[in-house]
Design a protein that fits this description.
The structure is a single chain. The longest helix is centred in the last third of the chain and has 86 residues, at 116-201. With 202 residues, the protein is of the alpha+beta class. The chain has a domain at 2-113: Thrombin, subunit H (Beta Barrel), CATH 2.40.10.220. The chain has helices at 2-6, 96-107, 116-201; strands at residues 10-18, 27-34, 38-43, 52-58, 65-75, 85-93. It starts with a helix and ends with a helix. The protein contains 3 helices and 6 strands, in the order αββββββαα.
Length: 202
Amino acid sequence: MRERRAAMRVSCFLPADYRLSDGTSASSARVTNLSVQGLGLLTSTPLHPGNRLPTHVAVPTDGASLELDGLVRWSMDSPGRDGSYLAGVEFERLDDTARFCLQAFVADPRRRALPSRAVRFTVLLLGMLLMAGLSLWVLVLQRKNEQLVQALAERTVIVTQLEARQQQLQEQVTQTGLRALDSAAEVERLQRQTARLETEVE
């Protein structure tokens, strides 16, 4: 047990598929952590301790794809929040190639995939930032729209005032024209009267 705990274990999120030793069809899964002695496995159905579990894991170490024979040591009876069941698998035997690939993967942090929690947290954080950005953008657009509506209302008031003033001026011009006509008629009448008086005086 001490030797098993001493093995370095890293969190990861690697695609895998497994087949029970009774010959059932292969099922897809995700590896949550990995070491040279075992792995954590997320499955869609619960596994049972004692089940022998040939597992195919795509380890990103020079494109390696490993066939690992394991034994289920423990398994959760109820699913997690994402509906998956977590199980712990101990390798029964490893050939030199598989051991070398696992050691290289565990020792080099640049080759590790992001843990599932980190992926979900990153996606959640990006989603929150995106929503915050969209909300801010909507507020800015609403503010600009309010300013445009206010400017349009002020323009409408100014145009209405100008139209009213123009109508007043037109009425004044019309009245002035009528008065001018009246004045011209009066001047003409006075001229005729003056001419008649001059004739009478002569």
